Amino acid sequence: MRQLSSECTSTELKSARAQRALLVFGGTEQCGPCLPCNIDTLLADFLAQEYATALSAYRLPTIPFNTSQEHGSLAGTLSFSARMMQAISSTLIEQLQQQGYREFIILSPHGGSHWENATVKELNATHPDLTIISAKDGAAASMKSAYQAAGLSDLRGMHGGPMPLYTTAFLRPELIRPGRYGQWSPEQSEMAFNYGLLEALSADGCWGEPVEVKLCELGKYQTIGQKLWSTFAQQQSLHLENTLKRVRTLRAELTCRKL
After folding, report:
1. I want to staple 76 with a disulfide (CB 3.0 to 4.6 A). Which of 37, 84, 150, 246 is the partner?
2. Looking at residues 248-255, what average pLDDT do you find?
């Protein structure tokens, strides 16, 4: 079956009678001297492809912006406010509701999208006839399985370390540049991100275990990234399906008790 997306015609989307939609948010923010600014968008595109197929969902086009204010003074960063992200999500869901969609997954792999949980809570409270979940729901367990599959232990970093290198090598290896990036003082993380002082604490804007990027090892990085994200997507798709079913079951039971 052809994946439902904006590449379909209106007639095709209507005849599919899908009830699930996937809202997709990437990100555009600096990632230091060796990696591109669109890593979050690349990852969002990949996960959206996997989730939309596994969950039989209508995949919306990826919005390439997120909340990245702590990187705002560094070249390449473009971001929206949390209020805008919430408004966009709400507006899209209300429009899709008119077209018959009833279950929504908000996909935002960007680590700084703290607006997401508040949005999910508010939309579920104000739209009791709909189900809205975050694609991050239960992600810790899926990531643990992914780490094991890729042969990884803890990857130290909040905006740096080897994780973004493996991700880019898997999705767009030609965008990687050789060199070194990263600085890591975990006790200073709140200062760096919540108080907008990342640039003062990190010379290259990366916050994680220092990494030496060697183009001769791109193949190794790519293999790790492929195992990591393919395993994660498979495990997380199953979890999201179970979450949607569980919400439906609990709501039905609650409705029966109120009758």
Report:
1. 37
2. 88
